[in-house]
Amino acid sequence: MSRKIELLAPAKNYELGKYAINFGADAIYIGAPSFSARASASNSVNDIEKLSLYAHKFEAKVYVALNTILYENELVKAEKLIWQLYNSGIDALIIQDLGILEMDLPPIPLHASTQTHNTDIKKIHFLQNTGFERVVLARELSLDQIAEIKNTTQIELEAFIHGALCVSYSGQCYISHYLGGRSGNRGECAQACRLPFDLVDAKGDILLKNKHLLSLKDMNRADYLTQMVDAGVCSFKIEGRMKDDTYVKNITAFYRKKLDAIIEEKHYKSTSSGIFIFDFAPDSEKTFNRKYTDYFLTERKTEMQNLHSPKALGKTLGKVTQSTKEYFKINSSETIQNGDGLCFFNENEELIGIRVEKIEEDKIFTKQNNLVKKGFEIYRNNDHQFVKKLNSLTNSRYLLANLIFKEIDEGFTLTALCHGYEVEKELRIEKILAQNIQKSEDNLKNQLQKTGDTVFKIANLKLEWSKAYFIQTSKLNELRRSVLDKLYETLGKKYIRTEKQIILNSFEYFEKKLDYKANVSNSLAFKFYKRHGVEEIEKAFELSENNENKQLMITKLCIKYNLGWCEKYQKPSKAEIPKYLKYNDKMFLLEFDCKNCQMKVSS
């Protein structure tokens, strides 16, 4: 049996969920009406049900994110919602709060969100043995670590391949709640990591001022997909439940083409059905990005963050070769057009955005041309024509159907077959022999193979008649439309989702004592860990009355390493020793765990 590979794309809402499926996703993940780690990307159960019905026509799956920690007064509502989501037809539930396993659950597969901090074999082995179907791996894991997990467990492995990065290990970041009461574990992260900080030493001297020291570039692992497949990843996840339709269409199509090449080479299978015909060239640099990093997949690297800005830069075009008061020129092989959005860093390392007003040969005219200087590197963060093209497209996914046109006593029938579905329509008319046999057959084939804006492409048309007949074009078109409409309505009716009932057990947890970083925020989570042998449990950070002198973040990003000050690996002639991050009047303590190559940020 061929191994199956899944491309998993984000959906902010029903419309974007359809686009994700139409442009390449084998599965999509979408936020629940509440308790989602993107609180502003919630959806009604009715919309989720409609999306499930649509996805299942292509054997694609719908996973719902209900991945926040739950407070005591939310448990009853959450359990009721889980049943509603199950009855809506979804394929799996993505969760963080392990207290959910103590609820009366429907037989729905559970995926352990990356918020459950899935970093080591012991944790993943535990999740497997308590009933999880899949774990969403921590973004920080290397190829070797992923392979080791795969070789010692049987659980499905899902890994991120693209999108925005949290600088902290997911589920272990409390800085947003500390600063403003908005918890990432409650779906309300204020993205404090994107703020500018001062880097301060132990004496209080500022080493760097007003830099985005924690703001990571975006992830792009397009060059490592084969290695990730070989390491054991089965689901390849695109981040972006807050992104727009151009991002969803372009990035999903971009990775669809990449994975399809691997699937063909290795004789694997996609987990959904259909073929893809793209009327544009997907390009990961042409939609929102802060420039890219593969983020620890192969080795530790410098320049993982953008020190000067957390905003989108887009595609690098080239450097300014000439600048006058009226126009400027750049050395770029890219075609630049009216309406494009460009940006650059000025002498003060500030990101400036400009709009192209006019192009004359290689001269670029803008209303802010006086800001552009020779030598500046220019980026395009809005490719006007590319976005315009994407906005005009609604579908790139098609199902191959076979048609059989057959003569019967009362007229003719047209049968359509696709992926095990078969439908038939009759055309009862008087049979009139054709005067021009070839012309009649050519017209019939031509009309029946037109599929218009449907999701079908005709793979084969078979004619079964004793003689050639004259049939009006309008009648053929009506027959074709009616049979394809009937086929479309039939799709998905044979879809059988996988079900799995959680059976409670007492498989022992690998620790006896849990602090606030276990994110236990309700009695059911407390009960769950007690069931599994944990003796001491501290309540969640969000429920504590005093969070001073606590670790707010743990990250694999190391400021010292990125600045070339690492004594362990870089051995600089002079290494500065940062001690604090400062934001306004707040000072955050930095601790460097050089043994494990991690950095801790504390209040």
Tell me what the structure shows:
Among the domains are: 4-168 and 217-286, Alpha-Beta Barrel (TIM Barrel); 313-392, Thrombin, subunit H (Beta Barrel), CATH 2.40.10; 397-490, no CATH class. The protein has an eight-stranded parallel barrel, surrounded by five helices. Strands 9-8-30-31-32-29 form a six-stranded antiparallel sheet, with no helix packed on it. It has a six-stranded antiparallel sheet with strand order 16-15-20-17-18-19. The chain contains 13 helices and 32 strands. The two termini are 53 Å apart. With 603 residues, it is α/β, with parallel strands linked by helices. The chain is globular, with a radius of gyration of 28 Å. A hairpin with a 2-residue loop joins strand 21 and strand 22.
Could you write a compact summary of the structure shown?
With 603 residues, this protein is of the alpha/beta class. Among the domains are: 235 residues, Aldolase class I (TIM Barrel, Alpha-Beta Barrel); 80 residues, Thrombin, subunit H; 94 residues, no CATH class.
